[in-house]
Design brief:
This protein has 1 helix and 5 strands, in the order H-E-E-E-E-E. By secondary structure, the protein is an alpha+beta fold. The longest helix is centred in the N-terminal third of the chain and has 23 residues.
Length: 107
């Protein structure tokens, strides 16, 4: 892996963690943002796929919301894009509990 590829991957991971942190702070977060580190910038988009609002009362498994996060970064000529699917358990008294279901680099 080249130095540029390693930087792009690290930047992508940092951006993904920032998006997940925003979800921990507010389970209803939807939108986009960016993160700048050492003169490089990455972008993320967070989309609520299923908020669990249509769950029947008493169905604990159904209260999990599903979220898609897409992250992208470019370092010189190397680009990285990652798609992450997570579930959110909004019942946690400590804030949203996030479970990563899938974390994949995409073209």
């Amino acid at each position: 892996m080249t130095q540029q590829a390693a930087k792009a991957s690290a930047l992508n991971n940092a951006c993904a963690e920032r998006a997940l942190d925003l979800l921990r702070q507010s389970a209803d977060f939807t939108g986009s943002g960016s993160l700048s580190l050492v003169n490089e910038t990455c972008n993320f988009n967070v989309e609520q796929i299923d908020d669990g609002a249509d769950c029947p009362a008493g169905d604990d498994d159904c209260s999990l919301g599903r979220v898609r996060v897409v992250v992208s970064s470019v370092v010189k000529t190397v680009s990285r894009k990652t798609r992450i699917y997570v579930t959110l358990d909004r019942r946690s008294p400590l804030g949203s509990q996030i479970t990563v279901v899938s974390w994949k680099d995409i073209p």
